[in-house]
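Session log. Operator J.P. requested a structure for one protein chain; no other inputs attached. Running the standard single-chain path with token output.
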Amino acid sequence: MRGGLFLLIFLFAAFMSGCSGNEPGPRVYFVRDGLAVELPGIETVTIRSGEKTVFKWQKGGGDEAAPLFSDKNLLIPIHWRPGESYDVEVRNKDARFTNRVMAPLKPSPMLIQRVKLENVIPFSIDQGTAPDTFVRFSGDNKYLAIGSFHGYLRVVEVRTGKVVYSRKIAEGMVKRIGWGEMDERRVLYVGEQSPDGYIYCLDAMTGREIWKYRLADDIETSRPERENDRYAIYKFPGVYQLKVLPGGDVVIVGTHGWDSEGKRLYRCLIYRFDGRTGRIKWRWPADRTLPYGLTWFDISDDGRKLLLLTSTWRPPEQTDSVYENGALYCLNGDTGAVLWEYKVPPLRPYYKRATAWQGVALSGDGRYAAIGLNDGRGMFFDTGRAVKVKGKRFLQNSPLWVKELGTPVLIGDIPVSSPVSYAEAGKEEVYFVLPGTSIPSGAVKGKVRKPAPHPAANQLYAVGFDGRLRWKWKSYGSMQGIYLSGDNRWLFTVNALAGMAGARRGGRTSPFGITLFDT
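Structure written below.
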């Protein structure tokens, strides 16, 4: 996400200081961007440091620099340092309160809203499933769009928590969302995963449909082979990635992988739509569907270069005469033509093919590219150094460097690896996330429990463009995703504890949530 960030309706910043939540009066604590004050019906706040008044706020005074959420949560922008003390006077219509607070070493988040979604039962974590959601802030952060597993789309006003509208759009899940603008009005581009696999353009403030396109007409539909298959939704056609370009066009990947008579089939396409009309400007491949999996792509800020990796976790039932499986392709974002390719060599003897999940990243200017592979390797490319090779249809590229971060190691006689499932590219370094441990498919016979975690599991690596490790961080649980702010300053990871059900039964605190880094 290179646009406005981001997840749930949290404003990241703070650790509580001053009065506790059990005492009467306001809750006052420090956040990354200033000071948070929580009190129903808040009317005035005065902050002093010694004899000096550093900030004064009055409800209705027009001070937009201090946003008030739901008439009770005030965010005051002040620059503080650990150990500094402030006297905070807060008034509502009933009373006046004075607190002295001391700035902590680190800030904490400020919860500004809660939005109730559908009932998640019977999706049991003990059965290994949990309902997906997807969230996206508008560019000015005034609204949040929420897509749910049950096919509902909600738009929420951040300041008030008011649900602008709620609409069920799919007999499936809302998979991806992007904000855009048309004739000075807000629009939403919404991709679903369902038997139809529609992408919609909607009026963002009313939910009115402007246009839609049915992906199943191109990449087919399917039916679950088994009844009561808890993973059936993931075998329908869906929009697995969606990017809105500066000019208003929309780029998506339509992904469909399903089982049929014991075979694993894939039908995938990349599309570029005219965001105003829904007209397809180009699709890749142009004259067929791709018989390999596509789950992710990245595109430069100007939309001129697009990067993707073809991969199947089982041998494909079909091959293509032009495009290869386990290959990295860089496309011209304006036309869909292939600029260059790189056939990723499998990491033998443990892997027969190169695969990836969401480990494809381009720098904002499109100059550099990175991929994270399920075999534990991270690779880095200069997108401008492709060359002509005799006998090859497209220009060929090769990595500037390769890092064996989570590649297989033997624990006893069992090989374990840590997939590089997520990647992001900043201005001077790339970020690789290794969320867990796996046993290479086919490396051992039968079902074998992982003997121990891979040494690199649950780690985030920051590697400079020169290939040198800048820093790394180890999570207490699995990291599911990585997101970089538009200015490349702030980095988020989403944390989830592996084996959640067992941890819950044991009464342990779950390290679920978000971790924020200053790059």
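Operator note: The CA atoms of residues 25 and 97 lie 6 Å apart.
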